[in-house]
Design goal:
The chain has about 575 residues and is mostly helical. Helix content is about 60%, strand content about 5%. The protein has a six-stranded mixed beta sheet with strand order 4-3-5-6-7-8. Strands 1-2 form a two-stranded antiparallel ribbon.
Length: about 575
């Protein structure tokens, strides 16, 4: 009898044809009636979190709270059609708040409607970038950001978001000018006695309650805290004591609006949209893969980009702002029994019904409570434990993470992501630019040939240098390769007759390195040293021929293994050397 547990959902392989662009339709085609009650219940449970979180993240992004609900309704419906993941929940997210605020705040001039239009423009840019990347099958690009760099970036974003919400928690109004200056202004305001103790009490209690109840995954923690804060404001008339509240929400659904403003810094909007696309897809791809593994389903990362892009693009034309997947709302949906994307549809319709039927239900919601919701989310973004492990195992990557963190914290979210990308490229190039290389020798009792730096007792073959280069050969390291070869030849204890490059780690060569190899070959020939290779990969061997480095009749210069290269040398030079 089989002991394997059945998958809660059938395994879905990547579809072919036009239907693959509409995973939601494919889901409906295979939908089981038994899933419907679970999806409806999960959608209603999810709504209890969508409303307060959507409003809170809208305020944190520099736009009125109502637009957080608009940015919830439309993207959820769009993702249900274009998104491949059955569990993911999309909407306003704390990781994007600082990015949006960095663009909206300086360009809006304090005009809420202008801020909404700017945020919608960013959503359209982010959507187009994601869709284009998905169509071009560039779903791998977010993998270029290493884990330490992602940690540094997200820690910087978390600090930026947290600092931006502290004035609201204290009931203080400041002109945001970046994390450092915001802290300075906040300190001056506190020393001047400008804080509102009632606002701080409500927001502080709300934050404490969220953090205390966070361990209880089944509880709608945020909803409980927000409802209690709203009731407290209404019962004790705290609005008359200076506690800022959300106020009346306009009745009705988001309307189609072309997001365009003339005379704004389009470069800042486009850069912000690209940054949003990169961050949101990085978060979404991780969550998508996680839930795909849990459900035994297939998720195409390129289609995930298209789904995320469609949600942002369509949302941007309906007064929305950039959105991403949520690491807090998706688990709520899963725990409530969500089976398919229909959960998001139910959640979107429930939020829409709230706007149509009872828009004033949240008018007494204090802004300090919304700040507490965002601060709690920002605290959850911080990563310390794994950074501690990274510091122990590889300190330079830890300091790389710290540099990225400092870039975001000091210069802001948009410059910070540029710094993160530059650091990622430098990190990527460094390993190939200054790779490890060594000479190989024979170790008694161990098969093969090994690094003499790690095995000083290794025996060298008289007159033969076995040189291993642990990287592709390209323009940045070509000169170092040549210098390294000449160095090991000069340090050889005996006259050298042949150099064999153990090329198994060499996955590619370019024109610059090919020209270097040609020049090196001439230098070695003038010194009476043969230039051979071993373990060359097929594609690299093809390039050697194409670049003219392996002429007809010179196939003997390449041996399939290092051992074969040694045997050939021993036979060619009649060297009596025992393995």
């Amino acid at each position: 009898m089989s002991t394997e547990k059945p998958n809660p959902l059938p395994i879905v392989t990547a579809p072919s044809g036009w239907l693959r662009w509409f995973p939601g339709l494919l889901m409906l085609k295979n939908y089981q009636l038994a899933w419907l009650p679970k999806d409806i219940i999960a959608g209603l449970v999810l709504t209890t979190m969508l409303v307060p979180v959507g409003i809170a993240y809208a305020e944190a992004s520099g736009v009125p709270g109502i637009y957080g609900l608009y940015a919830t309704i439309v993207p959820l419906l769009a993702y249900a059609l274009f998104g491949p993941s059955r569990i993911l929940v999309l909407g306003p997210d704390s990781s994007l708040a600082a990015l949006i605020l960095a663009v909206v705040l300086p360009l809006s001039g304090g005009d809420p409607l202008r801020a909404v239009t700017l945020a919608s423009m960013m959503a359209v840019v982010a959507g187009l970038v994601c869709i284009l990347a998905g169509l071009l099958r560039l779903g791998f690009i977010t993998e270029l950001l290493s884990k330490p760099i992602r940690y540094g970036y997200m820690n910087g974003i978390a600090l930026t978001v947290l600092i931006s919400q502290l004035p609201k928690l204290f009931g203080i109004s400041i002109d945001s000018q970046g994390p450092g200056r915001d802290l300075w202004q906040l300190g001056e305001a506190l020393l001047a006695g400008q804080s509102n103790l009632y606002s701080l009490a409500v927001g502080g209690a709300c934050l404490a309650l969220i953090l205390l109840l966070k361990r209880f995954k089944q509880l709608p923690t945020i909803l409980i805290a927000v409802v209690l804060a709203t009731l407290a404001v209404g019962l004790f008339d705290l609005a008359s004591q200076g506690v800022k509240i959300l106020g009346e929400l306009p009745q009705g659904l988001p309307a189609f609006a072309l997001p365009w403003l003339s005379g704004v810094d389009l470069a800042a909007v486009v850069l912000g949209g690209v940054a949003v696309a990169l961050v949101s897809f990085a978060d979404t791809s991780v969550l998508s893969r996680t839930y795909a593994a849990r459900t035994g389903s297939h998720v195409d990362p390129n289609q995930e980009m298209v789904g995320l892009g469609a949600a942002n693009l369509i949302g941007g034309f309906f007064q929305g702002f950039p959105i991403s997947s949520s690491s807090s709302r998706a688990p709520v949906a899963e725990a409530a029994g969500s089976q398919t994307q229909l959960t998001g549809v139910v959640g979107a319709l429930a939020v829409a019904a709230l706007l149509m039927v009872a828009p004033n239900l949240l008018q007494n919601l204090p802004t300090s409570a919304l700040a507490a919701v965002v601060i709690a989310a920002a605290i959850g973004l911080f990563e310390f434990a794994d950074l501690k492990r990274i510091y122990k195992v590889q300190q330079w990557e830890f300091w790389l993470s710290m540099a990225c963190f400092a870039g975001v914290a000091v210069f802001g979210a948009i410059p910070g992501i540029c710094i993160a990308v530059v650091l990622a490229v430098i990190e990527f190039l460094w390993d190939g630019w200054r790779p490890y290389y060594t000479v190989l020798g024979r170790v008694a009792g161990v098969r093969g040939f090994h690094d003499i730096a790690r095995h000083p007792e290794a025996r060298l073959v008289p007159g033969l240098v076995l040189f291993r280069w642990d990287a592709p050969l390209f323009f940045a390291n070509a000169e170092l390769f040549q210098q390294a070869v000449l160095k090991v030849l000069a340090e050889s204890p005996q006259p050298v007759h042949r150099l064999v490059v153990a090329a198994e780690p060499v996955t590619s060569i370019d024109v610059t390195s090919a020209d270097m190899l040609s020049e090196l070959g001439q230098t070695l020939a003038a010194a009476g040293i043969d230039f051979h290779f071993a373990e060359v990969k097929g594609p690299v061997k093809d390039k050697l021929r194409r670049f003219g480095l392996l002429k007809p009749g010179e196939e003997q210069r390449i041996q399939p293994t290092v051992g074969a290269a040694v045997d050939t040398y021993l036979a060619d030079y009649q060297v009596d050397w025992k393995r």
